[in-house]
Design a protein that fits this description.
Helices cover 45% and strands 16% of the residues. It is α/β, with parallel strands linked by helices and 356 residues long. The protein folds into two domains: 118 residues, Rossmann fold, CATH 3.40.50; 191 residues, Rossmann fold (3-Layer(aba) Sandwich), CATH 3.40.50. InterPro entries: Aminoacid_DH-like_N_sf, Glu/Leu/Phe/Val/Trp_DH, Glu/Leu/Phe/Val/Trp_DH_C, Glu/Leu/Phe/Val/Trp_DH_dimer, Glu/Leu/Phe/Val_DH_AS, Glu/Phe/Leu/Val/Trp_DH_bac/arc, NAD(P)-bd_dom_sf.
Length: 356
């Protein structure tokens, strides 16, 4: 693993033997501002797997924050362990002290395996923990606007592909109905879509089907990708779009909330070769980070939702750029994000008057 060749500004290894903390914080870029990204608590098989995830996710956060128009860089924290077994107050507070030691270069929030209540504990040791509970003055569950943003991206994809920004009459296959996927299902049902779902957690599926009688469930992702549908929405962990999945996917659009959906760089072209419109994951799932960023200014849900609604317009811009430049939407999105990091980030080289 070439950490120094990854383009990251900083990678920090955090260890506290007494609490059992083993964590990695990766800061990809601070060109646009402090590196904001959630903390993932996950039982990685190896330390190398944890580092690789931190590197990939932090880079994606930099691109996500840039494309969302935020004055934030990209970072990510990962804690190695089973959150159901290993998460303790002592461990979370030890992690918070490491975050504080970075002096604001990295701002943390929720991710897989961490929740608002966990960030409340982390915040007892650092000024740089966000995505806190409403009771503690935070923005609450950021999955609400993450799902809202994915839905806006899906509406834009429908507009680009079928000429109407509606999923009414379309079948949407949602892989993963946890924090984000369940909210997305609510919007899809309300919009008139037919929805089929799956999840590794039977309880999550049961909650969704109990709420929406018309939603159909299948056994697993392998069955889901072979079920006839118009839109495929990966909303679980990354790596959902491998070569085998793309080869059998019946969808005309892929748009979901999961991070790092493409297994390798060539996957975007494989989708394009099959005529499948891909809505870049870090573009459409930016609603959550928009919600968390708003918390830094005194959270206002209506304001955050209005900002997240712009994902619709940005997605249309990305699709149009991809068509005009003859590239995939993934390449077009990367170019737009990189250009903003270059053009706005360079302003930091203009020296301002010294302040006391």
């Amino acid at each position: 693993m070439d950490v120094f060749g990854s383009g990251h500004e900083q990678v920090v290894f955090c260890s506290d033997e007494e609490s059992g903390l083993r964590a990695v914080v990766a800061v990809y870029s601070t060109a646009l501002g402090p590196a904001l990204g959630g903390t993932r608590f996950f039982p990685y098989a190896t330390e190398a797997a944890a580092v690789a995830d931190a590197l990939a996710l932090s880079k994606a956060m930099a691109y996500k924050n840039s494309l969302a128009g935020l004055d934030l860089g990209g970072g990510k924290g990962v804690i190695i362990g089973d959150p159901k077994r290993d998460k303790t107050e002592a461990l979370l507070r030890a992690y918070g002290r490491f975050v504080e030691s970075l002096g604001g270069r990295y701002l943390t929030a929720c991710d897989v395996g961490t929740y608002n209540a966990d960030l409340d504990v982390v915040a007892r040791e650092t000024r740089f923990a966000h995505g806190r509970s409403v009771a503690r003055g935070g923005c609450g569950d950021s999955s609400v606007l993450t799902a809202f943003g994915v839905f806006q991206g899906m509406r834009a994809a429908a507009q680009h592909r079928w000429g109407t920004p509606s999923l009414a009459g379309r079948t949407v296959a949602v892989a993963g109905v946890g924090k984000v996927g369940s909210w997305l299902v609510d919007s899809l049902v309300e919009d008139g879509a037919s929805v089929v779902v799956t999840d590794v957690d039977p309880a999550a599926v049961e909650r969704v089907t109990a709420k929406h009688a018309a939603v159909r469930a299948v056994a697993d992702s392998a069955e889901l990708v072979r079920t006839p549908h118009d839109v495929y929405a990966p909303c679980a962990l990354g790596g959902a779009l491998d070569d085998e999945t793309v080869a059998v996917l019946p969808a005309q659009v892929v748009c979901g909330g999961a991070n790092n959906q493409l297994v390798h760089e060539g996957t975007a072209q494989l989708l394009a070769d099959r005529g499948i419109l891909y809505a870049p994951d870090y573009l459409v799932n930016a609603g959550g980070v928009i919600q968390v960023e708003d918390e830094r200014h005194g959270f206002d849900f209506a304001r955050a939702q209005a900002n997240a609604a712009t994902i619709f317009d940005v997605a249309l811009r990305v699709f149009a750029a991809a068509d005009a430049e003859g590239v995939t939407p993934a390449v077009a999105a990367d170019r737009l994000a990189e250009e903003r990091m270059r053009s706005v980030g360079r302003l930091s080289t203009i020296r301002l008057p010294a302040t006391r």
